[in-house]
Model the fold of this input.
Amino acid sequence: MRINPLRITKMKNMKRIAFILLSLVFVCNLYAQNSELLSSDWEMTKAKMFFEDNQVQEALDVYLDVYREHPKNDLLNIRIAECFFKLYDYEKCIKYLDIAFEANPNSNYMGEINFGYGQYYHKISDFDKAIEYYSKIQSGTEVVDSTKLAKYIAQAKLAKELMNTKYNCDFKNLGPNVNSEFNEIYPVHSWDENKLYLTSDRRVFEGQEQSSISKLYNYSVLASYFDENKNFLPAQLVDEVFAKDKDYILTSVGLNNNDYILYRHIPSNKDGGDIYYLHLKDEFDFSEPQNVGQNVNSPKYEGSGSFDFINNELYYVTNTNNKQGEECDVYNSLLKRGNFSNTLAVNECNTEFDESFIYLHPGGDFLVFASDSDKSMGGYDLFISIKDGKKWTKPVNMGMPFNSVENETNFTLSPDVKYAYITSDRPNGYGRMDIYRVDFEKYFESRFGYSPALTVVRGKVTNDEGADVNCDIKIQGKQKDCFSKKIKTNEEGWFTFVLKPKNKYTIEIKQKPYQNYVRDINLNNEYKTEIELEIELEPKT
Done:
């Protein structure tokens, strides 16, 4: 399974240093089955160092050089098969597994061989054979312990079931204007409905420094605008201070596109990376993102921040309570008076495995998260949970085409909920992780019986002379369970907020020296994608 791009930065140096130290201290006495080749030989050690650093092609090149002298060595063929598996060349993977087995029917590495066969058949969707080979392993091996082995068997069984319940949704890769040979991750839909933010480790300018280990560049934040036919235009750098080569990952955007939630890992901080927040007052504000503080961030990893700008709730993932490994859980925190507090685990979403991503729909009606638990089809899958009162329902696998036997790790939604955008490393893409679009509205209505679409209200406040008015706007729902919220316009009087359907609202402005402004919005019987308001405040007489 490919390493999650979000984790590459924080893991690669640690793994490399640890492995070099181990290789210098130890001489492994594990011998190959049929020749003098040792797993501790320098070429084998060097290749495994490359592999552990996610330099799979470099590892493969070294292994293939050794292969010329040791074509039947079982361990060597297993490692070559592992490389081809990581590179999605499954046919060459099975070729070298066959050599390892046929030349060494009594291999000491039979557990690794059977596991390799299980992984191969899992990826080509022959789930019965995958289960057969997984089940041949009596106990854990060097590459998989018994807990994970049970997980793979459960995943193969579920994948077989879900293959027969595919939802009839349009699904497409966004193409070369958005995707590249590098990683495109974290699609975030703008509330303007005319662009999609994304983060990429591609090269964005001449002379940009490239990692000698991963061959990737620092993360940059881009946006792809789309035309009236919903065709995406070439992605361009976002004109913000955090965008260009700063290694920030944009994970959530506010209603006015001036509030940003980001993730960044700074190696000198000696932690797993933190969540940052940025509020821009206007287009001339060049403030830097600020760390959200220790109520959320810890000495370990916090990422994938998703902010509900209606209810002021931040959902994120962290491994702060996992003392043994990298596995993350989902948490939430409430924003009160400018500070995040009341951090709690969202236990309905969490498993003993890794929850690597969270998306919270504005208004808090449902959430989507990624997990590689025993309820996935293989790798990371997307799961959905609906808010029922104050609790979340039991998460369900979103099924195909949202998920596959590869990794699906990110999710975002257009304001009209027609389309979801996901990240996946499934084969036949443009590079490593690609962004795809899938018909979400049909899926959600067929599965849950209603549409979660929101109404976007945008406009501007001026006075009777046409001058901009910067003021507070109070939004009050008229049903008992609805929210009461106060928002601020920007310096030029512009505002954006969203409303849930099937409700009546009152919009109120009290601003000296003007008359009180009150307006009703009725969404009880009619859904509107957006409402434009031009609010003119009259002077007091």
Notes: The longest strand covers residues 455-463. The radius of gyration is 26 Å. Residues 1-35 have pLDDT under 50 and may be disordered.
